[in-house]
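Onboarding guide, step 5: your first structure request.
Type a short instruction followed by the sequence, for example:

Predict the 3D structure of this protein.
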Amino acid sequence: MTLADRIDALLPQTQCGQCGYHGCRPYAEAIARGEAPINQCPPGGAEGIAKLAALLDVPVLPLNPDNGVEHPRLLARIVERDCIGCTKCIQACPVDAIIGAPKLMHTVVADDCTGCELCVAACPVDCIELVSMPAAQANDPAHADAARAHFQRREARLQRERDERAAELAERKAAVDGGSARNPVAEALARAKAKAQAAQTK
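The system replies with structure tokens like these:
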């Protein structure tokens, strides 16, 4: 197990980005490289900082207020009567914990929610509320492991979609570039000339 693996195992796997990195794993890798301090994770709080300090044998630091404040973990819940089905919350959720379809009601799968709160800011009609996360869920290593796996699967899927779009755009560009090598006007004149010559030989 690498140092980054061990650091990542101590992070809460909210994937909230408050640390300034795109998810817990990138933050863990930055800490392992010595590029980030251990006090940038509000969901992990003082306890998480103490665990990181013990692992790395460095002094305990207070949570950096620039990254947020520590508070009990929360769960997102959609007020279904107010949901307009815009899918912005689905796009914002880093662990695919929100399900629904365009113009239809969405719902949060509470067991998968990490409490990242990213969906709240994304919602244009303020129909997402935050409620207390059960302590058993907030402190469950299995929940953190599942959140890590969900995040990795989502990142892999999004990368595949980006690759597919890039390949499609490249194909379209190649088709356009290939078509631009042709001269439709010259081709039309050549056809007209050929018809005229054919008519003269009759």
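Each response can be followed by summary notes, for example: The first helix runs from residue 3 to 10.
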